[in-house]
Amino acid sequence: MKAASSVRRELHVSLICGPGTSAYTLREAMQAPVLALNDAVKREFGKNVHHANIQASRAVADTIGTTLGPRALVKMLLDTGGAKRPWRTSDTRLILEDGSIWKGKSFGAVGTQVAEVVFNTSLTGYQEILTDPSYAGQFVLMTNPHIGNTGVNFGDEESKECHLGGLIIRNLSICVSNWRATESLPEYLGKRNVMGLYDVDTRAITRRLREDGSLIGALSTDSTKTDEELLHTARTWDIVGKDLITGVSCNEPYEWKSKTEDDWEFSTETRNGVAETFHVVAYDFGIKHNILRRLSSHGCRITVVPSQWPASEVIKLNPDGVLFSNGPGDPSAVPYAVENVKEITGKFPVFGICMGHQLLGQALGGSTFKMKFGHHGGNHPVRQLQTGRVEISSQNHNYAVDPATLPEGVEVTHINLNDGSCAGLCFPAMKAMSLQYHPESSPGPHDADPAFNRFIEMMRLNKGQ
């Protein structure tokens, strides 16, 4: 029996030297008939969508295989997804500030980038993670080993851009299987100038981050740069004290006009319609689209303002409530935001999410600190102290509010059950509430969605006074 490496070499040669059209041309030529066949099969099976998808996939696969032949079919599958030859040599280095070197293969953009490395334990939702502005200045390492199989579609984006430094994964899917996908993950990252690294030991890197804390890393495809140069780059860059919010915020105020589609509507209360409309001003510190969708679902008219928009201008709008959004980086590095939060709080009902929670904590007199490796994932248990109810939450932050520094009257309402850190605040006298995690999920569970109901109720009570 031939060795696996020998078989791979023969296959490699046959694919490159064999006659026939390129895989890209074959895919383009087959796209229209395959889509037509897919639609025809779904029409035949009617409303049984799951069965129709299975039958359509089988029919499409049979058609492609018969039309192209085995050699071209294998070549097409290998080229799809941008992974190219899976057995090619490593061409990318990730060098951490502790001196460790991790070699892998690149996808997406090329070049050299430096950022803080954090790990995310979410099993799904990599596109929402990629487009979450809170990851600006960070390399996101996915602990789930298989990434890219569902491709990318525009409907799942949480912002218009990818602000993260890069994506680090174990295995990159060489094909996309998702009827909603419009392009592959490598194509998507390449167009947005985001670097990707795969075929590295993500488990080992994660263990190192858990033991030593988040580390700065330099990621490079540039073979002319020495390991020493990249290590120096990693050791001389720091995320602490940097204002990353300004780079992800909008430049001018705008009205959120998009209506929440039925596919996004999971709340019974909002499905049945909302009788009352509230005007909410949302500070964009890196706001996710699903926060705006959830507010819209509750009947809110939303005005989004930039991170440095003066509080005096917000007060002139006389909104029913103000939301302080999520965002990236060090909350102590944006004193202008803290001052705006301080000036607004007490005048209107306010709701802080993630970065907004940390800014509210500072505005009320508390302080924040940098965590060892933060919380990044969709499986963090949180307890509501008043009711004892436990929520599984989506979290993404490297900083937390120190409850010992909070003044009298400010209540800690939620704690993270993994480490006991502060996960929620409330100051009834100032009509203020906040959560350290993401009630809008996307990705993640919907356990915390009732927080939007509490914000709506707070505005309703204030409006009735």
From TrEMBL:
Highest taxon in the source lineage: Eukaryota
Q: What HAMAP family would the database entry show? A: CPSase_S_chain
What is the role of the protein in this entry? Small subunit of the arginine-specific carbamoyl phosphate synthase (CPSase). CPSase catalyzes the formation of carbamoyl phosphate from the ammonia moiety of glutamine, carbonate, and phosphate donated by ATP, the first step of the arginine biosynthetic pathway. The small subunit (glutamine amidotransferase) binds and cleaves glutamine to supply the large subunit with the substrate ammonia.
Q: Which GO terms describe its biological process?
A: 'de novo' pyrimidine nucleobase biosynthetic process; glutamine metabolic process; L-arginine biosynthetic process; pyrimidine nucleotide biosynthetic process
Q: Which reaction does it catalyse?
A: L-glutamine + H2O = L-glutamate + NH4(+)
State the GO CC annotations: carbamoyl-phosphate synthase complex
Q: Which family does it belong to?
A: Belongs to the CarA family.
Quaternary structure, from the entry: Heterodimer composed of 2 chains; the small (or glutamine) chain promotes the hydrolysis of glutamine to ammonia, which is used by the large (or ammonia) chain to synthesize carbamoyl phosphate.
Pathway this chain belongs to = Pyrimidine metabolism; UMP biosynthesis via de novo pathway; (S)-dihydroorotate from bicarbonate: step 1/3; Amino-acid biosynthesis; L-arginine biosynthesis; carbamoyl phosphate from bicarbonate: step 1/1
A Pfam match is GATase
Which protein is depicted? Carbamoyl phosphate synthase small chain, chloroplastic
Question: Which is an annotated GO molecular function term of this record?
Answer: ATP binding
Q: Which residues form the Carbamoyl-phosphate synthase small subunit N-terminal domain?
A: 90-220
- Keyword annotations of the record: Amino-acid biosynthesis, Arginine biosynthesis, ATP-binding, Glutamine amidotransferase, Ligase, Nucleotide-binding, Pyrimidine biosynthesis
The record's InterPro entries line, in alphabetical order, gives: CarbamoylP_synth_ssu (IPR006274), CarbamoylP_synth_ssu_N (IPR002474), CarbP_synth_ssu_N_sf (IPR036480), Class_I_gatase-like (IPR029062), CPSase_GATase1 (IPR035686), GATASE (IPR017926), GROEL-like_equatorial_sf (IPR027413)
What does the record give as EC number? 6.3.5.5
